[in-house]
Amino acid sequence: MQPHASVLRGDELSSIVDPIIVDMVPAPPDPYHATHLAFNLARFQGENCEREYVQGHRESQMESITGWQVISLCGIALWILISSILNVTQNLRSFTQPWVARLVISGTPVILKIQKYQHRHLDALFSGLSCVVSVPFYTAFLPLLFWTGHCKLARQMTLLMAFCDYVGNCIKDVVSAPRPSCPPVRRVTATKDEEENAMEYGLPSSHTLNTVCLSGYLLHYVLAYNESNGVFIEVVGFTMVCLFVGLIGLGRIYLGMHSLVDIIGGLALGLGILAMWLSVSEYIDNFVVSGQNVVSFWAALSFLLLFAYPTPELPTPSFEYHTAFNGVALGIVIGIHQTFHQFHHENVPHVFSPQLTFLAFVGRILLGIPTILLVKFCSKALAKWTLPILANTLGIPVRSTSYIPALNGMAADKKSDEIKQSGYLQKVFFSKQTSFDIDTGIRLLQYAGLAWSVVDLVPSVFSHLGL
């Protein structure tokens, strides 16, 4: 009997079932997709590990930053206490002052030989060069450098200037060495600034010290950020810096402001500070820009440095200069830390570029200079009003040498009460003084306000006005 028509033969059934079975069996994995999947999984795990590492590194970094900040401030406070107990300043002065004074006296014939070539044109030349490297000149020049767009150079030179000023003036007042005797030396003081400089002690020469450090750092900055320099350019730059430093040193001797030992001392100290600064400048800059506890740390540092400053044999303007530049450094650090990503990053336009033309830069000067002077005036007025109230509230006896003469009469009337109230605070400050000069705080705050306006307030105004 023939099979029924609906019954399929074996070969027909196989032809139908085999494709179905084949479709049901999973295909072997594609090597490309498998590799891609494994790579993504590994990258995900790696990113998680890296994220955990970075987070842990930041936490440990914050702990280390806090640690070195505390150690630094405690170290300075401990030095203030130890130097006060052991009379370090007086002991160093008794050892160094006679030796330096003999060198100053023995160097007088050298000064007189140089001054034999005196001429009114040489007087004008060396007086002008001295003004160019003076503290007031840098105080006026550095704001313009910020506004040209060279922000890193400006902040580095400002902090370097503050450091040089502090170290140099500390050594001046510790040694308290005399300047060349006048007469027989002829002393040329063409400006009021030079007359005030003549009231300071001699060793080391601040003009020589500042010139070595700032011109040396400027040369380093230019050569480091210009990749097309050749050996010839480097030699020319180094030669120009050496000639400039030599002219400044010769000019200070010619003007009768310094002896040879003062110039050599300023040169040696400047080279040492410059070498040190070149090795730590990037660390300092990174800390100011993106560090932790920058404002609080620098404010505490500025406060302690006022008390760490040595007492000179006789009063000089050196401490006032330090206080002013100490305030400038504080204001610059606060402003830069707060507004770096807005106004002071590496991509800000530079002067003479299409984004910052020369006319726009002139507009910045015409608007910026009056603004910072106004801020300085307001900061001084605010400090004169608030600091006496704060001192009275805390029971700190204060006096004023120039800014608030009325305080001296008030201090005399309440002298006994204030001494009783301030006993504990004076122990905290490691001081044997019966009162504190409030002019120091006023000067610190007014220059801090001025510097803050240079890098924060004024750039904000420029941004709003499109300058």
UniProtKB/TrEMBL annotation:
Transmembrane segments: 68-89, 124-147, 231-253, 260-280, 286-309, 321-340, 352-375
GO CC annotations on file: endoplasmic reticulum membrane
UniProt main location, coarse: endoplasmic reticulum
UniProt entry keywords in alphabetical sequence: Endoplasmic reticulum, Hydrolase, Membrane, Transmembrane, Transmembrane helix
Domain called Phosphatidic acid phosphatase type 2/haloperoxidase: residue spans: 154-278
Subcellular location: Endoplasmic reticulum membrane
Presence of keyword GTP-binding: no
Similarity annotation: Belongs to the type 2 lipid phosphate phosphatase family.
Protein name (database record): Lipid phosphate phosphatase delta
Bilayer topology annotation: Multi-pass membrane protein
InterPro entries reported for this sequence: PAP2/HPO (IPR000326), PAP2/HPO_sf (IPR036938)
Pfam families xrefs: PAP2 (PF01569)
GO MF term (any one): sphingosine-1-phosphate phosphatase activity
Species: Sesamum alatum
